[in-house]
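To whoever is on call:

I kicked off a structure prediction for a single chain this morning and the downstream step that reads the tokens threw a length-mismatch warning. I double-checked the sequence; it's 366 residues and nothing unusual in it as far as I can see. Pasting both halves so you can look.
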Amino acid sequence: METLAPSNQTLISANFTSRSVSLPCLKSPVVLCHQRRKLTFIKASIAVEQQTQKKVALIRIGTRGSPLALAQAYETREKLIASSSELAEEGAIEIVVIKTTGDKILSQPLADIGGKGLFTKEIDEALLNSEIDIAVHSMKDVPTYLPDKTILPCNLPREDVRDAFISLNASSLADLPSGSVVGTASLRRKSQLLHRYPSLTVLENFRGNVQTRLKKLNDGVVQATLLALAGLKRLSMTEHVSSILSIDDMLPAVAQGAIGIACRSDDDTMANYIAKLNHEETRLAVACERAFLLALDGSCRTPIAGYACRDEDGNCLFRGLVASPDGTKVLETSRKGLYAYDDMMLMGKDAGEELLSRAGPGFFDS
């Protein structure tokens, strides 16, 4: 009986096919058939061996498949490798792409799809089903509640929170002629834009990844668009930016520019890995903003903006805003206090309750 080479030796190329070698002239069909069966057996043996030798990942990272989501997943991977030497080995970290509801339904505005967790639900399910070990999210996509048996104890250092103005023939919103069309799927951006520039028109269902929206701009579908500067920086695409909007001109979305990493609540190993990556200043700011959002029960149907930062004295300065969808009504508030978790959670909650009271019933319907 013929013996195969030891498993640590290369028996035959992984690209091997029956055409890769010259066979002697075999006149007998029976012999030829035997030879083909033998080659099939060898290739099957190689496939099994390769599968057996494939390294099992220590961490499987779940993420959406957009270029920006993947950039955030790779950023997380690099930080994990830098913080834990065993993760530097080839194959120790695997990135698993998961398609979410928000990725599947592109024909409708997010506000019309309804519900929360449009970009996180399927990733959370994969986490709970142990198909992945950690989930990497854009924090502004994460609902104010977390699924049972999951925790989100880690935020990476926050990127620039401001919005970018992009146009082929105008340097700022103020330079756009009356009637110009600005594309944005964000009710927050729409309401603040129309409040300041009521002569402009907004194309609401301007959805897709960054590259898709820039293509629509180049194709003349709109005259301008607004995108998060953080995403453009992570994609190294800031060359497209015409100007950057100040916080005063466009208050950012809650948790804009922040990346969150979740794991199962009973997985101490993963919790320890990602704890090494946490940026506490970002985590506290995001917690404050999300407390504001929770008090307002905000969703994609609600124009809400909120931003917490450390001021020159080291304290927390929080600013919050709610608006009617058409931008005719805008309510703002602010808080200042200690840059500490309990104080910041109370600031966010109190600010949200104040604006909710001032807005009254029917405020968000116009």
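Update from on-call: the warning came from a stale cache, not from the record. Cleared it. Sanity check on the structure: The chain has eleven helices and 13 strands.
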